[in-house]
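Q: I have 166 residues here and want to know how they pack in 3D. Can you give me a structure?
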Amino acid sequence: MFSPQKRELIVGGLSSAVSVFCLLLAFSIESVFGSTFEMRMLPVFLSGTMVLISVMVILKAVNMPKELLVSQEEVQIMRAATGRMFGVVIVGLIYVWLFYALGYILATAISMYLVMIVLGNSNHYKIALTAILSAIIYQFIFMGFFGFYDPVGRLIDLSALSEFLS
């Protein structure tokens, strides 16, 4: 097993790689109306925030003492948290594919459901209801209130529902 410092460096390095990749993808989003702030504003902001947090994790690891006493209980908690962290990253990658295939609202609802499962929730009815309501609220806020462009899914076209909710 890795020392806490090496583990933090690994997490910071992997997070940096994923966040820089997301930032590059966010900058590749083409503007529909010629403005730089409409479609790519949120992805660039979130990706940039991920980059900053990753750098902070790496700096924390560099400044961490080499010998850090950790109890067996803390090791088990860290293992569970690490597994959940990778699960959330995998769900994030699934979200990117779902966003392309199904559109914003359906991809958001499915991804929120999956994230809550990965994080250990087990009441499927409550999770599904929360995911659907949250996706509707997000749709209203980002597409209706902020006026962000809502791309149509390649497999399922929910543009009528999207227009209704926006």
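Q: Anything worth noting?
A: Helices lie at 4-27, 41-62, 72-102, 104-118, 124-145, 159-165. The chain is about 75% helix and 0% strand.
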